[in-house]
Amino acid sequence: MSVVIDAEKCGKIKDCPGEGLCIKLCEKGAIIEENGNIVIKPENCDDCDICIQNCPNQAMSKA
Asked: Where is the 4Fe-4S ferredoxin-type domain (predicted)?
């Protein structure tokens, strides 16, 4: 299963209380910032769920 981002809940980096915490925590580089948006690179994701567990906006989940 891949991680998905709920665009309505995600504050992007500018409105994220964690200032892009998901990007900082991802050791595999599966979450990147692209034009101000948070983007998942599923080919790099190892399903560790650290991003889901730590998202301050609860915007990340499994699809």
From this structure: 36-63
